[in-house]
Batch of 3 targets.
Target 1
Amino acid sequence: MSVPGIRVLLSVLATGLAVGAAVAAVAPEPQLMTWRRDVHGVVSGGAGSDLAVPVGSLLKPFVAQAWAAAHPGRPTPRWHCDGRGCWRRSGHGTVGLVRATALSCNAAFLALAADTPPAVLRSTFEAEGFVVAGAVTPQAAVGLEDGVAVAPASLLAAYARLTRRPWTAGETVRLEILAGLRQAAQDGTARGVGRSGVWAKTGTVEDPDRRGLSTIGWTVAVDDSGSAVLARLRPGTGREAAAALGRLAGAGILGAARTDEGDRVRVLLFTALRPRSVRATNGETGETVWLSPGQPRAEGVWRLSLPGTLERAVKAALTAERGPDGSLQVIAEMDAREYVSGMIAAELPDGSRSQRIDLGAAALRLRARGPRHAGAHFCDTTHCATFIGRGPMVRWPSPHRAVMLDRAPRPVDDEEWARMVGAARRPGPVYWTSHCGGHPLSEYAVWGRGDRQAPACPLHAGAPARPWTRFWSDEALARALGARVDRAFVSVEDTVQGLSVESGGRTRRLLYDEAHRALASVLGWDALPSPPDRIVRAPGGFRAFGVGAGHRVGLCLDASWTAENR
């Protein structure tokens, strides 16, 4: 290159560096502003609490509220997000409303908004204190365009109502939204808040003073006491605002997530049997009733009977509602100690005292992460944990048939409970598994979210143990999955293990929970003891191989491990 050419190049580079420095110089330092609403509804904090401003994706829960009002009784759909129209270019895959809320999936909420009359969107927003200007397009409804704004004080009030007041129409939809907001704080867009026991949501909007140059991040969080906090980070994103809010959590800006005796736990009962009717007898008064939707029963010791199949005693308050398939969904709300006692009786009936304490502490940590179901914290199957309340003990020869045993469960005593509560306040396992097979898995490897670390099991020291094999016939697989399976294999994507099946040239991938439930409906709960290591074609079907029992995440409950050889 000639000397003049070099001079020109140096001049261009110098100009570019000067422009970059100028832009950096005018870019403001991130500023965090917060507003706090206490349990009495008093708002304090930053200025402008009555000034309506755009808040982006913080609108999304109320889009679901409008959709529910426009479609009473309709179950929420599922969507496939391939990245088109969504903030995540790679997409979110197939999601339901709970996960779409946790991940703030634009595609899902745009579809909900498009399926809702604009007049219903407008009336819902205005009833919740939002300011609507112009037509409510789907893009405006989910915060991708201007048109809907809200003052911080009104937004905090709307979210407080969302967590505490049932919807006149679509209460099951509200419960799905709440479950998604819990997950958002756990492993979704609001995980930077660092508090798993809160409902949280993030949003990002373009900065009106620096369009095309920067954004403003928003995060709202509501704790169990009913107090709420709203954070605005300028410039920033919703995720960054959540992280900034999380750094303030230690200063008391959010109430503590509860893990003590005051907790209540809602348990979805009889999910494997899906009964049409349940008889309840009050152990104190002798009153016998058939549970009906809309007729709650006060707390007491209730003996629940399913005609010809099962009996179970629980100390709880009872509610019931009809599921989409017509089955009676029974929810028992009880003290945390009652839940832990009934869960340990089912999961670890012969465990040592130290094992029971470890398991109870893990259950309390899991409870603090929030509900795993739209209307309940836990179900009574292996999806969450098996639960038998106050008994009787049962065994399950098939997924739809229980055999009651002449054996009473051992309740959690006062000393065990005190030690469980104390241990739950310290870091430790959140999940548990029957047997890790010498090869424990991480939360992320099984569910595609959560911790990517898999701590070594102190029981099995990494040596493969408890191998299993199962044969799945072509006919059983077709019934379980809805189509004949031409090929089945273990697939791993970003360390997440899945079961992939090919049918008619199309491939479907199921995570462990999905595959477990599908196969259990035909072959029983033991058809897939744990995430499989490999699957091979066999005459008339497929043979799967693996190790351990359960999802292999967290605390290993191998019952042969006692306090004496620990």
Target 2
Amino acid sequence: MITAPGRSSRVRSVARALASWPTTRRGRAFALLLAMLLVDVLLLAPQWAAPGSVPFRWIAAEAVFLVLIFAALPRRPWSLALAGAAAVLVLLAALTAVGDATIRLSLSRPLNLYLDVRLLSAVLNLMTGTLGPVVTALAATAAILTLVGTVALLGHLLAPPRAVQPLARGRVGAPAALALGVLTLGAANAGEVGRYVDFPAVRLGLDQGRFFRLLMEERATFTVDLRSTPGSYGDLPGLLDRLGGRDVVLAFVESYGVAAVDDPRYAPVIRPRLEDMAARLGAAGLHLATGTLVAPSQGGQSWLGHGTVLSGLWLGNQMRYDLLLASDRPTLIDDFEAAGYRTAALMPAITLAWPEGDRFGYDEIYAFRDIDYAGPPLNWVTMPDQFTWSFLERVIRRGSDDARPLFAELGLISSHAPWTPILPVLEEWDAIGDGSVFAAFDGVGERPEDLWRDVDRVRSHYALSIEYALHAATAYAERYVGDDALLIVLGDHQPAPLVTGEGAPRTVPVHVISGAPDMIEPFLKWGFAPGAFAPADPEPLGMDRFRDWFVRTYSK
């Protein structure tokens, strides 16, 4: 009786075959063809996933060149090492292309390796908060294994086998000439061929070199900006005296851009909430005005917007932000302290060390571990906005023995991706306390991995999260803001292009609220409109204009 070989025998047979199969010229040609297809997909698939970022192409010229080179090589130790090195370089180029496509989709700009490699930690934190540490660790392990397997496969396909002479010694001249002709036409972008051929790895390399050169020039530009814009206002007469000793709260709402108000996909949710804001604040005897400012980023890097408002300098990239931190440039924090205010930062999203807070010089810093929140995390969001507002009032404003007026900066994060779950705003603020009341919402809502399978539902949840953020801000203001405070609520940046579409402006709404009309009047003169909707402004000012205007306007 003849028995079929076991499964383990079949696996070993397949492995041996894969290790030795290109033993003929035809087999070698087929291996190189597979290598060319693999390189082509690795280099161009990120572009296919991010349509519109660069012209759509089907052929990566580097894939053809790579195959032509290895077709002509004999099997030598150095050629085997060269095949492995080529596989690693292709994978690095592919990862750079993936990073470029991701940055374009999420931040609406190209990748800058020098600045953006540090964002990997932020991505890891987002994944851990959204998917949990176990799933994140499994995903990272699977990704590493996939990368190692890809390098091994590509290196094996490129490596010359023992039993086959280099193809260049056979009849490879005509195909090589044809391939070189195609590549030449592609490089010249001539005729139909040029529409399908690209040099993605070369282009990315040249782009990164250009970005690095521009960043080195940015140092000199930033130095000029430091000298040409006001730094310290310590000598300004009556510094911030027109505030009359009122508390000032500067609250940044995550991903709140004008798209939430103007885009017809979101306006049916957001505009009624803004109308309700105006009505409720008016009924509470509060005055409201709204305008717009232009943020330096889109889709992320909220700290650039925060730093731009505080410093009065345009921080359009990470280098300018780092240069600000390295300088002794005073900020709005220093202005308030010089005017006799105590200053506080309430940042529930900061879960790690935050040396930037020490650099800005707040008197009090409340990061995640400094906040007595006993409720559940909500995926990436560490605590809901309503608790953050409640903590501001309970601990920072009313729980301090310091008699000085307060300047507080808030980072509100309920409208941060993944935009699930969406919580209600609780009516009983006095019951919020340490946040245990939010335990009822532990595990509610869709899982992010389920929600994000449907782009339309993601956009719907984005609108609902902004609606919640505005509802919570309104409820706080009508209950706790009177003529003794000025509340400024603004977006930190527009959401990602996934939400806004390509080419959206970086404009964000700014709402100012106070029980004292003389606190709102200067904003009206600056171009804001009464109520919850900003006036049409074809050229809104940048966030960097806020500090100088605010300090001069509210000083005698």
Target 3
Amino acid sequence: MATAAMLNKISRLVIGTLLLLSSCISRGVNVPPFISPTSDATLSDLIVIVNQRREVQTLTARVDLQFETREGAEQGRLRRFRSAQGRIILARPESIRLQIEAPVLGVNLAEMASDGRRFQLLIYPEDYRALIVGSNDREYLERTREMETDPELKKAGPLVNIRPQHFTTAFLFDAINVQDPEIIAVMEEARRLVEDDSPGAKRGQMVVKSYYVLSVIHRGEASPRHQYWFDRSRRLELVGLKSFSREGLLLGDVTFSDYLPTALPVTLPSRIYIVRPYDRYALLITMNSQTMELNRDIPETAFTLDAPTEWSDSVRRVDLDRED
């Protein structure tokens, strides 16, 4: 029969062997830290945050615009244009007027307008003047590809690809009608590896953050129409909006940041980064807070435009609804 001393010796030997084995098969690894959430919410809470944006009926502001084209995205390349200035006017549900000025010169480069049904895009430079018109509810992916190969229109860069709904979806997105039996809203948590944007963080330092994702699905469709992303470490700030086609393709990916207080019971982002993968462009919009006005009266005539009469026949007219 084994003595107590022998059993104690065997026990120490076993424990020592296990410790030795554990030190051989594992080691500490540095990973990006996880930022613990500071906010919890229910599905109803998130819907309320989205629907608060209904308080904004109209918006006007001076803006800075930074365009990027994504033709070389598959090869990891893009083309970034010089920052331009402009003015944006928005009115619910889908009306817009956007003026874009050439950098430094301050002259008009392009204007876009829409009354919510039809849109006009007017390109000013004399060597490729054009008036492009179409319908808001169409994507025109094939027609856009054709225009991109046109030697004259190609000079306009990403301007031929922008559409009113790219902006109105980002600024004046629809309220979520939970009473509509055709709409389903669901929420989930997602975690992302992102650059740390907290005060004092080192440039390039990465962290893992927790988000709530609110998906809005139309009954019978295989893909959500929209996904709203809320940062759980920033008091449920709405930081992202993704829009999808019926086939589940990512049509728009919008990032919101640098929120500003307003006289309304809602804050608004002053930086809006719009990525349109299939329209092959991205646009960073920075609003001038000193010029931002909310809910002022805007005449309907502000949302239609035509080529100046003095241009005569020098302007090229492109109707995207016309089958050539």
